[in-house]
Amino acid sequence: MLLIFNGLTKGKMEFDLENPLTGFEEHHFDAVSALFASESDHMPSFLAFKSTDVRFCLRRHSLSLIFQAQSAHKFDRYITYLAVNYIDRFLSEQVVTVNKPWIVRILVIASLSLASKMKNVDLSLSDIQRDVGLFFDAQSIHRMESLILTTLEWRLRSITPFSFLHFCMSIFQLGDSSLTQPLKRRASDIIFSTQYEIKLFEYKPSTIAASALLCAADELIPLQFSSFLAAISECQYLTKEELMNALAAIREMLIEGRESTVDSESCSTLTPKSVLDCE
């Protein structure tokens, strides 16, 4: 199965998080409608993490290891974002209990490997394994990659908030085109930051995208915030109540300075039960 995946990705254009449906049959339909119709299939479960402290702490430990590797090797942060998305969705579906300490590390390595393949970037897995503190043979990593592929039903072209940025920007109708890129960059930074917050799992990617752009607009062009909010609230694909709730949650996150905080100290001793039969 993994050989099929490697064959599909080899030599292909790199996956663009802002255009996840590029090159696929979904483009025979209206692209925007297809994105909104499919986004729920790419969301982690808020309730899965809320129901157990084990999953919550395993996630924080995983994020700590991923951002440690990203900091050390300076690879594209979109690879990091994709890998975290895979981990969140994987943990949402898999039953994990306390046991063996290596599962978090092999999950991180396999997720980074899959994300790098989607982005057509070569990562040194040996260097990353050195960072996370354990070495695995190629067969074990491939088996974990296969398990992730199966669990996610091969949906690695993740539909994320980045997929909706262009659509939401078009609703804003900026009068000054020079503001487009600064607004998009700030919104993107906010979207990267929202991945830390489990409470935002309950909001769809499109809602996160719209809320991030509103936050960016409030910071950069506050005089236009009210008109932007009115325009985007009328979008047929978005629910105003959810938009306002997500906006409040993101604002709270920004005010409290949680944009770049991953603390796994309280969770680093947890050891989840193996989901691989590698005895």
UniProtKB/TrEMBL annotation:
Coiled coil: none
GO biological process: one example: cell division
CDD domains (alphabetical): CYCLIN_AtCycD-like_rpt2
InterPro entries: Cyclin, Cyclin-like_dom, Cyclin-like_sf, Cyclin_C-dom, Cyclin_N
Domain Cyclin C-terminal intervals: 159-273
Pfam families the UniProt entry points to: Cyclin_C, Cyclin_N
Keyword Transcription regulation assigned: no
Annotated Cyclin-like domain residues: 64-150
UniProt keyword terms in alphabetical order: Cell cycle, Cell division, Cyclin
Superkingdom per UniProt: Eukaryota
Keyword Cell cycle (UniProt): yes
Family: Belongs to the cyclin family. Cyclin D subfamily.
Protein name: Cyclin-d6-1
Name of the coding gene: CYCD6-1_2
